[in-house]
């Protein structure tokens, strides 16, 4: 019988397990689990940009999705699973005790958000990121230089420093800190001690200022100068990091029994969702792999010697082997993309949730149906109407910084803005301007790569928005003035993990071969429309001008 691997993909809202035939790439089963506590936004406060996730959400999802996917799969598949690899969001770190257990799973910390995973989009550490940037520029070595030269509040050191300053209990109890993508493989293989568990090169290099040239993490002197509270922590973290083609070990007896698998199943070192998503979408050198969902991650690979020691300014980093082992991985992205459409939808839903929800004109069941149906159709209907609005007709220009700006040049304190409104600015016109703003944010990233000397030959898109929205995709193709291929797989991140698992389990010698055998190819391609390209060149200049005004001249 054929061999199979499992790709376990932890997204922002849900986790999915995908079982893939390693010879044909056939996806034989997949199950999704929405995080229950997260769905109720427990431990979060959007107003303060605080987004925390409880490890129980991850654990319940791990067991449920694998067990249910194995039930769905044809008979005999479970016995022929040879590997599991894991991708997660990031930087999503957690404080752990000496055994590597997240503090929120230990007595006294169960309900403490500071003892939970700090989700990538948590921006509570803006002040700490500023301090890191200031010190880095004064220090003899700029530890931020391989992370675009600007450290972000979305990343490891800023987050942990913020939490330990805020919470003396967590500070005292935290032996070390672990990324979500490192904790799951550690747990599955039983190697959870913070000093021995295998750490992901991808997470360490892009988010924790780890680099071979620095001998690992930033120096103890730098960290202590940042805050004496950090003294000694470096020694309780790690020196070595591993790419996703390396084994983290095999399943423990306990997990093998729980999941219904053999203890021979090899577990791969973890990586971030976007990075393995790029693998799943069959990333190739010089193609931007654009993960378009809640946020965007724009991934590029180049041969190692091509960029060499040149530092690409303003991106989320350049790391040896962070996407495809053996190649240089470059990452950029937008902190909000589909999340901006989701925000506008929530604004429009307000009267539904606050007026219609209270009406006695219809019975409860009908009311609920009305609410659900309207809510489900808002973005699709807005897109339909927005498609009819001619480019530039509305005069509205928007900025895509509703969740800060990840790249180019991280500044998470920035806010979104909409200009050019008049009394005729209706919902579809505003929506179109928001879509254009997200496309302009993408262009700013492409332009930065190009101006820094990184070649771009094309774009491969994946993620929910790439699949769901021809309107957004056409506008992005027009604004970038580049064709965009959309990857066929519905679950590119999980598929990328399944490919990595096939390499780790020894089925293929390299990621390139796993991609070739297991890849789903391209579903569709969007081509720029020359007439639109010209109009968007003019609008993009307005976006840039407006951006400069909001960034440098406007104070709320
Ligand atoms: N028809 C649509 N057009 C454009 N965007 C959409 C549409 N439907 C949903 N979205 C956006 O897709 C995003 C979710 O993308 P998805 O890739 O599924 O999730 P995630 O980023 O969490 O992995 C949401 O932010 C939502 O606003
Ligand atoms: O920055 C990241 C990876 O480097 C995050 O993991 C990513 O932005 C979150 O992804 P999604 O929008 O798909 O939930």
From TrEMBL:
Its EC number is 2.7.1.16. It catalyses: D-ribulose + ATP = D-ribulose 5-phosphate + ADP + H(+); L-ribulose + ATP = L-ribulose 5-phosphate + ADP + H(+). InterPro entries: ATPase_NBD (IPR043129), Carb_kinase_FGGY (IPR000577), FGGY_C (IPR018485), FGGY_N (IPR018484), Ribulokinase (IPR005929). One of its GO terms (molecular function) is ATP binding. GO terms for cellular component: cytoplasm. The keyword Kinase applies. It comes from the Bacteria. Residues 290-503 form the Carbohydrate kinase FGGY C-terminal domain. Keywords: Arabinose catabolism, ATP-binding, Carbohydrate metabolism, Kinase, Nucleotide-binding, Transferase. It is an enzyme of class 2 (transferase). Belongs to the ribulokinase family. This is Ribulokinase. It comes from Maribellus luteus. The lineage of its organism: Bacteria, Pseudomonadati, Bacteroidota, Bacteroidia, Marinilabiliales. The gene is araB.
């Amino acid at each position: 019988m054929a061999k199979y691997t499992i790709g376990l993909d932890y997204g922002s809202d849900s986790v999915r397990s995908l079982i893939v035939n390693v010879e044909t790439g056939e996806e034989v089963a997949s199950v999704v689990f929405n995080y229950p506590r997260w769905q109720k936004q427990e431990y979060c406060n959007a107003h303060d940009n605080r987004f925390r996730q409880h490890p129980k959400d991850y654990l319940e999802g791990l067991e449920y999705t694998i067990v249910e996917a194995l039930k769905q799969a044809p008979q005999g598949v479970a016995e022929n699973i040879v590997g599991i690899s894991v991708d997660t969001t990031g930087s999503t770190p957690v404080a752990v005790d000496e055994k590597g257990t997240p503090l929120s799973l230990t007595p006294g910390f169960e309900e403490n958000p500071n003892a939970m995973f700090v989700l990538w989009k948590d921006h509570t550490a803006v002040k700490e990121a500023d301090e890191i940037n200031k010190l880095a520029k004064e220090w003899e070595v700029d530890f931020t230089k391989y992370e675009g030269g600007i450290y972000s509040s979305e990343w490891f050191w800023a987050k942990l420093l913020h939490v330990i300053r805020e919470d003396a209990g967590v500070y005292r109890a935290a032996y070390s800190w672990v990324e979500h993508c490192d904790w799951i493989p550690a747990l599955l293989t039983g190697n959870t001690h913070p000093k021995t568990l295998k750490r992901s090169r991808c997470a360490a290099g892009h988010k924790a200022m780890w680099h071979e040239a620095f001998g690992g993490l930033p120096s103890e002197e730098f960290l202590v100068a940042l805050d004496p509270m950090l003294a000694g922590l470096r020694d309780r973290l790690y020196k070595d990091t591993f790419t996703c083609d390396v084994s983290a070990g095999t399943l423990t007896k306990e997990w093998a029994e729980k999941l219904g698998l053999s203890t021979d199943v090899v577990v791969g070192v973890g990586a971030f969702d976007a990075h393995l998503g790029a693998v799943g979408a069959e990333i190739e050198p010089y193609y931007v792999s654009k993960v378009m969902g809640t946020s965007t991650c724009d991934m590029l690979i180049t041969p190692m010697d091509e960029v060499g020691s040149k530092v690409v300014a303003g991106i989320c980093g350049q790391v040896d082997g962070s996407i495809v082992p053996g190649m240089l991985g470059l990452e950029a992205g937008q902190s909000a993309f589909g999340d901006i459409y989701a925000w506008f939808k929530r604004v429009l839903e307000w009267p539904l949730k606050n007026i219609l929800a209270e009406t006695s004109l219809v019975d409860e069941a009908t009311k609920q149906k009305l609410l659900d149906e309207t809510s489900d159709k808002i973005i699709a209907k807005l897109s339909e109407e927005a498609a009819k609005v001619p480019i530039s007709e509305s005069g509205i220009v928007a900025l895509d910084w509703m969740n800060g700006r990840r790249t180019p040049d991280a500044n998470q304190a920035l806010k979104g803005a909409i200009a050019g409104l008049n009394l005729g600015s209706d919902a579809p016109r505003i929506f179109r301007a928001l879509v254009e703003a997200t496309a302009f944010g993408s262009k700013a990233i492409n332009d930065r790569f190009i101006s820094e000397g990184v070649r771009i030959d094309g774009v491969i898109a994946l993620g929910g928005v790439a699949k769901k929205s021809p309107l957004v995709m056409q506008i992005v193709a027009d604004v970038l003035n580049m064709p965009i291929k959309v990857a066929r797989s519905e679950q590119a991140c999980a598929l990328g993990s399944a490919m990595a698992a096939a390499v780790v389990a020894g089925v293929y010698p390299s990621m390139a071969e796993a991609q070739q055998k297991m890849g789903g190819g391209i579903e569709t391609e969007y081509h720029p429309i020359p007439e639109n390209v010209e109009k968007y060149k003019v609008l993009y200049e307005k976006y840039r001008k407006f951006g400069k005004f909001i960034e440098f001249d406007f104070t709320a």
